[in-house]
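Lab meeting, item 3. Inverse folding demo.
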């Protein structure tokens, strides 16, 4: 696979407002919770501020960012251990399930991290990620092509995740609702004006990897087409779509 140099976003510097912009969307959470049904003990790796963690399970969270760990406490979540996916300090088969939700693209060694999840999980591993082969299917590829190229290099191919996790694997395409409250890029497919908000972009990690000046150039491109009406001429139908199914995937490996 094509490894992007230094894929880890600096959440300690830029993640202070993460919980305001990246919340658990209940409709997406339903897909996660369905796969965790019957699992009693769960390890959440790259747990961030605790999005999509089940409230009725025994959950141990792992998160390397101090700022993100602090936000867990502020929102009433249990404290997280400081560790990375590549250095998980747990015995083999020590949890029923492991979960990794929109985090694998931050791991410097994705395969090593996934192998740890496989080692630790007795019954199941679930990974929510974005399929790099589908990223061109969203209109933002037209306005932010340089950003999408960064994303393609950061996200692992579905095949790599499936092969590394082993077991009986399946891939579920997760529809993103038009008013999604988890502010990743696809969440705003029906609300393009959101990308003009610096706070929204700050909480989408890919923007942090653009060269100086490029972010302003890309935002201006979208702003101009929104102002002129060209965006609505080309993509206005998105505004009334109840949901969009694109790159968001839930990969499940059962053992």
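The presenter then showed the designed sequence:
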């Amino acid at each position: 696979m094509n490894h992007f140099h230094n894929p880890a976003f600096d959440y300690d510097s830029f993640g202070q407002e993460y919980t305001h912009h990246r919340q658990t969307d209940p409709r997406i959470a339903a897909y996660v919770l369905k796969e965790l049904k019957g699992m009693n003990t769960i390890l959440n790796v790259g747990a961030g501020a605790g999005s999509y963690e089940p409230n009725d399970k025994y959950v141990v969270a792992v998160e390397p960012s101090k700022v993100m760990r602090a936000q867990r406490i502020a929102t009433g979540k249990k404290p997280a251990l400081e560790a990375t996916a590549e250095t998980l300090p747990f015995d083999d088969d020590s949890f029923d399930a492991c979960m990794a939700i929109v985090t694998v693209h931050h791991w410097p060694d994705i395969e090593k991290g996934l192998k740890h999840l496989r080692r630790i999980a007795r019954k199941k591993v679930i990974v929510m990620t974005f399929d790099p082969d589908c990223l061109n299917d969203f209109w933002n590829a037209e306005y932010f092509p340089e950003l999408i190229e960064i994303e393609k290099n950061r996200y692992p191919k579905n095949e790599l995740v499936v092969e590394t996790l082993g077991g009986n694997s399946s891939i579920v395409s997760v529809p993103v609702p038009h008013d999604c409250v988890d502010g990743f890029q696809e969440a705003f497919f029906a609300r393009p004006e959101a990308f003009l908000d610096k706070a929204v972009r700050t909480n989408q990690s890919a923007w942090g990897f653009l060269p100086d000046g490029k972010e302003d150039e890309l935002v201006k491109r979208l702003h101009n087409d929104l102002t002129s009406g060209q965006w609505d001429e080309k993509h206005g139908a998105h505004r009334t779509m109840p949901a969009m199914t694109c790159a968001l995937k839930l990969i499940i490996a059962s053992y």
